[in-house]
Amino acid sequence: MTHARAERAALTDLLDRLGPDAPTLCAGWTTADLTAHLVLRERRPDAAGGIAIKPLAGYTASVQNKIKTGRSYPELVDAVRQGPPRWSPYGFLPGMDDLVNTLEFLVHHEDVRRAQPGWQPRELPADLTEALWKRVSAGARLMLRKAPVGVVLRLPDGRKAGGKKAEPHVIVTGEPVELLMFAFGRQEHARVTYEGDQPSVDRLRTAALGL
């Protein structure tokens, strides 16, 4: 089983257990909203543009709400569990599911896990951890382009990746999954440490980061 499929399975199992009204780290979204987002992303490519393009966000939100209210919550979770249909770009292009959905489902899995009381970090497979570091280090400049200060990402073993070149700068240290959550704008729920002057750290911890 690929990591994308494993995260998809774990997330849908968790969504089933929690039901439609549990909180997530996605602002304003319950588990039902997040599930509808995942269905839209894979089954309504005509409406998915608003996920990344602000002028289209209103249409995307409207379609997502119709998806959420048009089917039962268990049906929506099952649609996510089944994976993308064959006509979807994620379904018919070889390797696309693992390339695109590993981060998507891992981050959203953590969005649900970390919104619940008493959550603790998971121990991820070593190959997934290394793959996350490669993806984070490769995409750091894009994900951290909105940072108000310079950012350097650092692993506990000392390896570094430049996120944004600017002064003053802050060094953010953590495991790859924690750096991923940080870079995707989940700073409050990422178990990382900061090195830098306090005003810069404070600005970075509350900045709007991510794609």
UniProtKB/TrEMBL annotation:
**All residue ranges annotated as the Mycothiol-dependent maleylpyruvate isomerase metal-binding domain in the record:** 5-44
Q: Which NCBIfam families has this protein been placed in? A: maleylpyruvate isomerase family mycothiol-dependent enzyme, TIGR03085 family metal-binding protein
Q: What is this protein called?
A: TIGR03085 family metal-binding protein
Annotated source species:
Sphaerisporangium dianthi
